[in-house]
Amino acid sequence: ANPPTASPIGGTDMASDPSNKQRNYLAIAVQAVKRLERQMLLALDNGNIRDALHKAMELLTELRTSLLSPQNYYDLYMHATDVLRRLEAYVTDEDERGRISVVDLYESVQHAGTIVPRLYLLATVGSAYIKSKKAPTKDILFDLVELCRGVQHPMRGLFLRNYLSQVTRDKLPDAGSQYEGDGGDVKDAIEFVLQNFGEMNKLWVRMQHQGALRDLGKREQERRNLKQLVGTALVRLSEMEGVDMKMYSEVVLPKLLEVTVNCKDVIAQEYLMECIIQVFPDEYHLETLEAFLRSIAHLKSKVNVNNIVVSMMNRLSAFARSNPEKIPSDVDIFALFHRHCAAIIKAKSKMSLESILELQAALLNFSSKCYPEKLEYADHVLGFTADVLAKAGTTLDAKCTKIVKSLLTAPLETMQLAVLSLKNYHPLMEFMGFDDRRDLAIRMCGAVVNSGELLDTVEKVVTMFKFIGPTLKDQKDKKAEDGTKASEIKFRKEQELVARVFHLIQAEDTDTQYELYVKVRSVFGKGGTRRIKYTIPPLVFGTLALIERVVARIKSNPEEPTKIKPKKMFVFIHQILVSAYTNTYPETAVRLFLKSAAVADACGMESIAYEFMVQCFIAFEDEISDSREQAKAIALITAALEGFTGFSEENWETLVGKCCQHAAKLLKKEDKARAIVNCAHLFWPTSQAEEAKARRSDKKLLKLVQRSLKAANDCMKEQVELFVVILNKCLFFFERNVPTINLKYLQGLICLIEQHLPNLDENTPEDVATKAYYMNTLKYIRSKKASSDSMYAQLDIEEITST
């Protein structure tokens, strides 16, 4: 019968809400516990142990209630057991002082009338009895575990056995314990814990079958709330010093697996298998893996064995990553997992595709972490997964796609460039949509770049480009892009990553390197006009670097045979640039032509350098129409020509004339002025070589400066700024001893600037910057005069300047 304290509950003033009822039930019970606790403590203070035990019995009667939910019963249980711990401490202390006999007390509490309070008291006094060492520990332990069979109510019995487990936790005859020896050995301790665990599991399972069928879901939830009570028994086992590898494999694990399999309950089997995985050391799992996996086949058909196997593999994978040296070499753990995974998939014909993929993903993760050097393991998993998807014949949903992506991503983290040797990698990629394949290709590019491993063979390059195909050319299943800025940024970053991958294509042999570049060109050329903007420049620069290597190799060892000559490589670059690239990106093409001409000139190949300069001018004339881009291009051409040394006089004059002609034809006067004065450098090369000195012409230089001044004078804006620019150019030529640029000419320029200086508007940032530019120029001239520079000694600027 329920205790009297519970009977008043349920009056007409009670709220109808079940949660409110539960709170009221608990409040009344806790109030009774606290009242009786005070009375018990008063009796203990008075030394009246019998009265104290009587009050404890009344207090424990509250634990007989069936009205509380598991959560609320747990709160009541905690209040009651806190009181029992104080009682146990009192009994232990008084027994040591000889005021009471714990042996007599242990016998007397067995005659209590109500079984639940009796067994709680018995466990409490029994704990003190063990501590006194007046009887063998094992006798008391097995006596208590047997007596607890008297409570068969699932929830009350479960909490009772949990209390027994708690009070005896530090009193087991474990290895090295003070209770070992006459009190028993580690086998007795293990047997006690296993017996108690087995009974707790039975009680927990029995909760499933009590009550109406309509409340099944509620009971399952209540069971899940109480599962930790059962799991604590396994934690006790894992904490025992005497449970070593041998004891675990021979005694503990077989008993645990027996209890788990025999309970025939889905919830219990899933939870207990997970507990075994989590609470015991990884080294133990490695040695007993065969037995553990074998037991999975005997679980109930509705048990999610997939989660169990995946959990074990993930646990061992993490262990292998941090402790690779502890993986046993004499046992092929991967083969064990693979065999049992295949058996699980075969036995469960209705296993979902998602579950199968999760199993394979865990298996691949395990092989990547534990056996990174055995590529065949990873390749086998990928091939098996591809076969499963081929047989399924359905489009992958979002969850399956995510798992397949993780399957393909895992090898990249540990194998990096070695994934290129996995034959089943690319076939599995083909089961994903374009966006997912592209994301995976980007991750692969990032992994290869981060690893820094070189792509030094044709096979590696071809395979790599096959894997990252979605980033190299449009695919049939590609969706139309939305044209947003974010989409464009993503595309740009993707192609920049591809360009970084290209720079890893390096072979020690120059002929092999050229062969690799030919393969690359065939792929890049199919990428479309959007992609070649990013992929062609690195190919051109790579080939130019290769040419310099070949030339240096020929110079150092002329007799060494070289299959691919520099001329052929220049033709290769020429073919790349004169195709669609120049028409689409002429500004970049001009830069690439100039760089190619510079390398050809440095290699002493005048005709090839001249041809590149011709193509550069053709691109400028035919493709660049924007005036700003024309000005930039002319500036680049002028700078490049100034550095060339290998052209004949005829070719040099032709190119310089063409450059000056285009500079003079620029649309904007300010651009024309800057371009013409820059061209003046072409008639006074700074190089001291005889060829460069022969090209000097102070008259032509002066003529260009004069034309520049005229163009600047015709400008409606930037007039003063252009005059200052020309002044600085003339200072440069003056210091290089150009005869026509003398002190008188410099003074004239300064006077010209002074005349136009009042036209500047002090309120506009541009004019303020121009004036500061001019002031800095004057400061430079004054510093030269102050340093006793003989060249500037006769230049008097103080009378002609206003500042």
Fold topology:
Layout: H1 18-45, H2 49-61, H3 70-97, H4 102-109, H5 115-132, H6 137-147, H7 154-167, H8 186-206, H9 216-239, H10 245-262, H11 266-279, H12 282-287, H13 289-296, H14 305-322, H15 333-347, H16 353-370, H17 375-392, H18 398-415, H19 425-429, H20 434-451, H21 458-467, H22 469-472, H23 485-502, H24 510-524, H25 529-556, H26 566-584, H27 586-602, H28 606-623, H29 627-643, H30 649-664, H31 669-679, H32 690-694, H33 698-713, H34 719-735, H35 743-756, H36 765-786
Description:
With 803 residues, the protein is mostly helical. Helices cover 71% and strands 0% of the residues. The protein has 36 helices and no strands. α8 packs parallel to α10, α18 runs parallel beside α20 and α26 packs antiparallel against α27. The radius of gyration is 45 Å and the shape is elongated. The N and C termini lie far apart (112 Å). The N terminus is likely disordered.
